Structures are given as C-alpha cells and as structure tokens.
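Shipment paperwork, digital attachment
Item: protein structure file
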Amino acid sequence: MLEGFAGGGLELRKRASGALALQGSFPYGKRAVLSDGGRSGRPKKEAIAPGAFAYRINTPSEHGGAKDIHLLSGHDFGKPLASVRSGTLDIKDSPEAVTFTATISEEMQEVSYVKDVLAAVSAGLAIGISPGFRLPPKRRVPNPETIEDEGMDPENGAFNAVIRTVLQALLYEMSIVTRPAYPETQIEARNWTPDGLLQSDGLGIGLHRTLNRWRA
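Attachment content:
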C-alpha cells in the first residue's frame, strides 16, 4: 500500500458524553518532496490531485452502506482508532481536501496505544495525516497517475524533479503520524518511469499482501 503525507492539522475536542472528537484534514494538490535525489539522482515529488480519493469515500459497498475506511496509528491495522463501518469515523471528500471526524469512545481512550496517540496529538508531536492507498487496476482506470518533468528553474524552486500526480486511488485508511515524509524504502519501491506503473513484485494483487509490502 502506498502512503502519502500532509500536515493537514489535527484537533481534539471533548464531548459531553465523555467521548473525544478527533478532527483532521488531508489537503489535495500539495506537492511532497519524497527524495532530494542524493548526489547523482533526480529529486522526486508527488501530489494527490483533487478528488483522487473520492471513489471509496462516496461509492457504496457491494453489501450496502459505505465502504470501510479506517483511522489508524502509524499505518498499523493492529492499532485502529476509528472506522467508517463501526460508525466512529465520518469522512468526506471535497475539491480541497479529505476531512474526517473520528469519535474516540471512553472505552477506547483507556487502550494503551490510543492513550499514546492522544497524548502525542495533545503535545503537538503527532501532527501529520497520512493516507494509505492503492492505485486502481489498469483495466479499470487506464491512467490513474501522471509523471512529468519539473524542468530546471532554480530561481522559482524547480530543480529538474520527477513529479508524480495521483489522479485516482483507492483509499483504505488515514493514519496519524509523526514523520513528515515518505519512508525511503517505499520511495525506492515505486517505478518512476513515464508509464506510471508500479513495479511487479510477483506477490499478486491481494490486499493482504499489498498491505504487508507497503506498510511502514
């Protein structure tokens, strides 16, 4: 699974019921520097286009109701904070951003890793929102992303970077993170060629295996 990053912003509010409301947003259209290129390579940047995550947010599941999307701690499905299907995650898509409100019940607030996340958010240490997503099958969406050259214009901040723009993607989770960048191992696992396809790893396309491959 691919992971992105944006500061976005997080806000905690206490409700009369004792539950906590955790609100956040992932803005579209912001370029993230994934790699500076090192000594001999080219810089790599990535942007998520407006509406790229709309499909799984807005399309009903085969069984009725919304497709399940999770809010996690650090892209770890073993550390869930909320989910659409459980009724604890309200997530919306707009041309500007993906926004969400997660309801953290009093019972969940007593779980060890949830305490750690809430403490980190309150202290301003966990301020990042990172989406976990996959590109759709090419048979369904022939061109889910584009790759272009930034060009060389140092005065305006352009240093011949390779820019990948994700146009359509399948969003499975949003995570609260502390690191404001992509892990280098995930950057290198991508195929930064103009055909815009991920390299084959021989593992098939099952979600379980994809999660294992891309999880931080």
